[in-house]
Amino acid sequence: MTDPNRITLYYSPQSRATGARILLEELGAPYDLQILNMKAGEQRGPAYLAINPLGKVPAIHHRGELVTEQVAIFIYLADLFPQGGLTPALNDPLRGPYLRWIAYYGSSFEPALIDKFMQREPAPITQSPYADYDTMLGALEAQLARGPYLLGERMTAADILWGVAFSWTMMFGIVPKKDVFVRYAERITSRPAFQRISAADAEMAAQHAAVVGG
Known about the structure:
Blueprint lengths: L6 E5 L5 H11 L3 E5 L10 H4 L9 E4 L2 E4 L1 H11 L14 H23 L15 H12 L12 H15 L7 H11 L2 H22 L1
Parallel strand pairs: 1-2
Antiparallel strand pairs: 1-3, 3-4
Helix pairs in contact: 1-3, 1-6, 1-8, 3-4, 4-6, 6-7
C-alpha cells in the first residue's frame, strides 16, 4: 500500500534542494528523489520546466499537488510532520517569530545576497526589500546572539534552512565569518542528518560531473 504522506523531492546535489532533503531526514519523513543533473542542464529541459517553469529546485510533489519555493517547502513539510518537533503549532506564541525568520530568508536575505554576490548596486533603501545589506545581516546577528537557535533554546525548521545557508555563504565569503554565525552553522552542520546528506551529495555531484565530462 502506498504511503499517502510520501514526498517526491525534485533534487540536485549541492543546491538549494540540499536543505530540503536534510529537513526531510530530520523529520523522519518518507520521501523519494527525482534527481536532476544540473551540470547537464536537466533543470532547463522541457520535462522539468513543465513541472516548475522557473527551472529551480527544490520542488516537491505530495498528494498530487506541487509545492515550489524553498521557504514554502520548509513550512509545509514541518507542518506536515509535526511529530518531528520542528514547527511551533498555530497557537504557540513562537509561531509568529518562527514565520518571521523563515520568511526573512526568502524576502530579505537571498535578494541581499545575490546583489552582493553579483556586485550590483542595491535599490534605494526606501525601495529595497532588505533595506541594505549591513542592516539585514545585523538584524540576524542580533537575533542569533540570543541563541543558541533563532527562537532561543528551541530548534525549528527555520534553523535547518539558515544553518545550511550560513555554511555555504560563509564558505564562499559572501557572509563574513563572525563568531555568532560560525557557531550557529556548526550546530546544524554537526548534526547526523547534515553529515549524511553532505556525503551523499558529494558522491552524487561527482557522478554528475563524470557524466557531463564523459
